[in-house]
Amino acid sequence: MTEKDPVEVIRQALSQTLVFYYPFAGRLREGPQRKLMVDCTGEGAMFMEGDADVTLAEFGDSLQPPFPCFDELLYDVPGSQQITDTPLLLVTRLKCGGFILVVRFNHTMFDGFGYQQFINAWAEIARGVTKPSIAPVWAMQIEADEDVRMMCIVNARGRFNPPLPDGYYGNAFAYLAAVTSAGKLCRNPFGYAVELINKVKGEMKEEYLQSVADLMVMKGRSLLFTTVRSCIVSYLARVNLRAVDFGWGKAVYGGVAQAGAGSFPGISYFCSAKNGKGEEGIIFSIFLPAEAMERFAKEFNHMLCNQNQPQSTL
User: Fold this and answer.
1) Active site residue 107
2) Active-site residue identified among 85, 145, 147, 245
3) Is residue 302 annotated as part of the catalytic site, yes or no?
4) 29-58 per-position pLDDT tens digit
5) Which of 61, 107, 214, 302 is catalytic?
6) Whether the predicted model's global pTM rises above the 0.85 cut
7) Which InterPro entries match (predicted)?
8) Burial of 126 (0-12, 13-18, 19+ CB in 10 A)
């Protein structure tokens, strides 16, 4: 594949992949009561190409957020951020023969695992197969819907009976919130917060998900989670995008480019990564004000030091 132009290979593969994942070639529309619907128009996706006069090696040994020249490598097409606009795909060739693939999508279309399934199908077709190894399934009836909140995005795929069919790539997750007061959070040890989170995660069963779906139907798009004094964490380390191979080998990094989502900076992500020594690890992207970041780093390092101290028993 090294002698081929990655832009053309990926562009052609995308056009073939959208035949199977046809909703992504359509457009989101607003219906009654602001309900979002997919209009399968077949218009396709916005595809852009670029060239960067750098090599992959020039980015350094460890590829992880924050990326150097981030703003220069991404082109923010004017007017493309609205919820009903087209998905945006950008391939940038590097001087060494590698490339950077950027995908902007609307989260109402799929979740992290659905995204991985779509990307894998796209990569399979780029390598020469005629159809995805997992047949895509689109329509499903169940969708996921002075205190502080730690909200976790929990995968719901294994929590139904019968389970969701293989190949389902729509949204199947729910936001769970561990709610407490700022005072209780400060007065109690770290384990207090962990217990709160474990408790709400244990409550997410099929009945809970059905209840959330029913509430979303009743409330429509007026049902929004609060971002005030809220922190959201999404664990994407199991969404193995580094294993995706378009024919040039596996990716050296596969995950989010930065923390936050749109205008809300309070979303953090756990992504798998490998450092310059080849050691596997987890990257945790987080946005905080400068003063809060210094305090966070201090507290986090203090916690790690305590964990590494030998424990004595009296």
Assistant:
1) yes
2) 245
3) no
4) 777 677 777 777 777 888 888 888 888 888
5) 107
6) no
7) CAT-like_dom_sf, Plant_acyltransferase
8) buried
